[in-house]
Amino acid sequence: MCRKMMFNLAVIVLCANGYLGYTPFRLTDCTSSPNRVVTVSGRLLDHPVRIPGHVRAPTTVVIHRPVNSGIRLDVTVEKFIFFDYFALPCVSRVGSCSYDACELLGRYDNKCPGQLRDSSFPCTCPFRDGEYNLQAFPFNVPNVRGPWSFLAYGDFRVTGRLVNITSGEEVNCYSVEFTVQSAAISSPWSLWDCEVRLYTAIGSLSSLLLDPSATSPPVINMQHIVCFVAALSLASATLKFQLHECHTQNPILHLSNPHLSADPVHIPGPETGDVDVQILRPVDGSYTLDVHVQTHVLFGFVDVPCISNLGSCSYDLCGILSGQQFNNTHHCPLEIAASSPDFPCACPFDAGNYHLNPTTFQIPELSGLLKWLASGDYKVHFTIKNTRTSEVVACYDVQFTTAADCSGISCLFGRKRVSKRNAFGVAFTVDI
Hints:
Elements: H1 2-18, E1 26-29, E2 38-42, E3 49-51, E4 53-56, E5 59-63, E6 71-81, E7 84-87, E8 90-91, E9 94-95, E10 98-100, H2 101-105, H3 114-118, E11 130-134, E12 138-141, E13 154-164, E14 170-182, H4 191-210, H5 222-235, E15 242-245, E16 253-260, E17 265-267, E18 269-279, E19 287-297, E20 300-303, E21 314-316, H6 317-320, H7 334-339, E22 352-363, H8 368-372, E23 376-386, E24 392-404, H9 409-412, E25 417-421, E26 427-431
Parallel strand pairs: 3-14, 17-24
Antiparallel strand pairs: 1-14, 2-5, 4-12, 5-11, 6-7, 6-10, 6-13, 8-9, 13-14, 15-24, 16-18, 18-22, 19-20, 19-21, 19-23, 23-24, 25-26
Helix pairs in contact: 1-4, 4-5
């Protein structure tokens, strides 16, 4: 039994340790159409790609027939996460997006980057047929900040497909695989360094497990132990539901006495809540709601980008509270209309004191990338701003934990978490 447990642990450790290795650069022609537009060959001289840094990519492009317009570029960006590649969403026209190829290149307005000009390499439509060679000039890779910084490092696969907009025929397909790494470590105790130390220790232990007779002991020091303890303690953090009001000079509302029946919030599942709302003056259509969402990932909180109008997004307040889809007195969801008939849900709002009685909502199951984020600790900062004066008239911080029928990477594989009891009656959970 002990031997089997050691073997299973070794396999898990090897999988985790293997993730530290990087994918060799690979350019693959996946074109199946006989009517291809271009043929591309090239290599990456600076690999892994380092951020910030530079890359040199000598490339030869053969254009088989003139390209004027009518070509769509479909891009799929995938990131390797433990055992497989998973597609990243299209956020702010970055990621797995579709573009009009000539419109996308039109931003250069016949002013190509110097590296392309010096190679006589065209970068805007129309393209004449012929062979073009990009020399090994360095391109600057800037630092990545904001929501994408969390996803900037790792192994990637990017697939680009050219589609004839008129006929719908895919005329070209290329896939490129590469690795992106951080250019530098700022200090011996940076978070990136701590992760490297942690995986190094795991790798050393895996070697010992696979070969107990090895004479060289694993290289593990106090820094490895500190990083490991920090990872366990931070990864297991759980936030109790709390709502705090930030200071504002001229608030338009007050929220108080909020309660949730289930803490942590279960996704999917029912959640019952109630709250007191005091509206200090009338609210019309001149306000915006800005939401900043962060989730806890191992060593700290990272920003959640705005995906499908969910996450760190900005909204027109009365736009999302129009209530047009609800045909009742206060244009409320049926759950609120049944529990709190006098509670207003749609603009405009009159000044007054309102109470939302305990109301049960059914939280639906999430899908795609959002499903991976269904379980974890969250902090949400939201503000309401007067668009006429730019004054912040409401500010709140919320923290809470969500739980799901799956956890982390198992959500992406469709596995579920179930509760069981052992022979001694002790409860535990497993992913199946």
